[in-house]
Amino acid sequence: MLAIVIPTLNAARGLPATLAACAEARAPVVIADGGSRDGTQALALELNAQLVLTPKGRGPQLAAGARATPAEWLLFLHADTRLAPGWYAAAQRHMAEAPGCAGYFRFALDDAAPEARRLERRVAWRCRALALPYGDQGLLISRALYEEVGGFRPLPLMEDVDLVRRLGRRRLRALPVAAVTSAERWRRDGWRRRSARNLVCLGLWFLGVPPRVIARLYA
Q1: Do 215 and 159 meet the contact criterion of CB atoms below 8 Å apart?
Q2: Are 42 and 49 in contact (CB under 8 A)?
Q3: How many CB atoms lie within 10 A of CB 16?
Q4: 117-127 tens-digit pLDDT
Q5: If you placed Cys at 49, which of 29, 115, 183, 212 could pair as Cys (CB 3.0 to 4.6 Å)?
Q6: Residue 83 carries which DSSP code?
């Protein structure tokens, strides 16, 4: 009934923890790899995931992963995101109670810094006020709804925002379990600088700047 689709690109370091958390569901996992050179592909096979080789770019990778499984429900998840214990029970409730909605998890970071808590609160506000969860919160969606809205478009970036906007507020539902994402990018770039860069990228998207241009700024 459920398959988990994970796009990867040189994700070998964090992938084992992500897949260990996914094992709670005993569901098939599809790794859509965009050309990793760090052993990600071999690791995916070693960990009993289905490996799909795709062009680089999260949009094409996610779309290819969805096509590779006949599952009635799809959970799209980033390779550096670990779902907290109890996520599958919450997913089951969602699938039973709200098949016409897509579910997303609560954003959390694997860092004890006060900056991480502040960022989590800002993301929670964005989801409540703007109905705009990002891909690092996971997206649980029925295949019927996924196909109805046109699925993931072949975008290198902002594929999550694009799909969520087509779903709209009434077809989004928050799930009461955390999706714990690596804070490595914020630690590396600086909390304020990374957050500002993300906000600029979002603004450029809404202004109509091509995603391939935004992707160069995001990296």
Answers
A1: no
A2: no
A3: 12
A4: 999 999 999 99
A5: 29
A6: E
Q: How far is residue 52's CA from residue 204's CA, in Å, rounded to a whole number? A: 31
170-206 pLDDT, tens digit each:
999 999 999 999 999 999 999 999 999 889 999 999 9
- Backbone torsions φ then ψ of 91, nearest 5 degrees: -65, -40
The Cα-based distances of 158 to 114, 177, 186 in angstroms read 27, 24, 18
Residue extents of the structural domains in the chain: 2-185
Fold of the domain built from segment(s) 2-185: Spore Coat Polysaccharide Biosynthesis Protein SpsA; Chain A (3.90.550)
Phi (first) and psi of residue 66, to 5 degrees: -65, -40
pTM comes to 0.95
Bridge partners of 179, per DSSP, are 83, 107
pLDDT digit string, tens, across residues 42-80: 999 999 999 999 999 999 999 999 999 999 999 999 999
| 16 neighbors 43 (Cβ within 8 angstroms) | yes
Q: What is the 3-state secondary structure (H, E, C) of 14-76?
A: CHHHHHHHHHHHCCCEEEEECCCCCCHHHHHHHCCCEEEECCCCHHHHHHHHHHCCCCCEEEE
Token representation of residue 47 = 């960990």
Q: What residues pair up with 141 in beta bridges, in sequence order?
A: 74
